[in-house]
Write a structure and sequence with these properties.
Elements (H helix, E strand, L loop, with lengths): L2 E3 L10 H5 L5 E3 L4 E3 L19 E3 L6 H11 L4 E2 L9 H4 L5 H5 L10
Antiparallel strand pairs: 1-4, 2-3, 2-5
Length: about 110
């Protein structure tokens, strides 16, 4: 078993989970995070830290596509190991449905200078 980030993270990108991860297996995209399933040690400390339930075990039903997506994007996106501010207006998006279809971006996070 491993943990994955689901579509609830899109347009929210809360990073409470990142702060507690002992192996730094989170990666940051433009508008969401993912977990590298090969690096995750299945400790589960990140799951209860997410206030919007965007982290779940890969043993949950219908997670197959998300496991592949987390794996693929974690190999392209930069690692994140420290908590950051969430996305602006994240509270407006936290309970929204169909975020994958409406807002998903496969672009990596780029630090604005």
């Amino acid at each position: 078993m491993t943990y994955i980030v689901n579509d609830k993270c899109i347009k929210c990108k809360l990073t409470d989970c990142v702060d507690v991860c002992p192996v730094d297996c989170f990666y940051e995209g433009e508008n969401m995070l993912v977990i590298n399933p090969d690096e995750c040690i299945d400790c589960g400390v990140c799951e209860p830290e997410c206030p919007i339930d965007a982290i779940e075990p890969d043993t949950n039903p219908n997670t197959e596509k998300l496991v592949l997506l987390n794996k693929e994007l974690s190999e392209k996106w930069p690692n994140i190991s420290k908590k950051k501010e969430p996305m602006k207006e994240w509270e407006n998006f936290k309970d929204m449905k169909d975020k994958m279809e409406r807002f998903f971006s496969n672009k990596a996070f780029v630090e604005k200078k």
